[in-house]
Amino acid sequence: MAVTVEPRVGSTAGVTASPSAGPLAGNAPGAPAPGGARVLRFSGVGLTYADGTPALADIDLELERGELVSIVGPSGCGKSTLLRVASGLLEASSGTVEAERERLGYVFQDATLLPWRTVAGNVELLAELHGYPKQQRQELARAAIELVGLAGFERHHPRRLSGGMRMRTSLARSLTLDPVLFLFDEPFGALDEITRERLNDELIRLFLARRFAGLFVTHSIQEAVFLSTRVVVMSARPGRIVAEIPVELSYPREPELRYSAQFATVAREVSSALRSDEP
Question: CA–CA separation, 87 vs 117, rounded Å?
Answer without folding.
Answer: 26
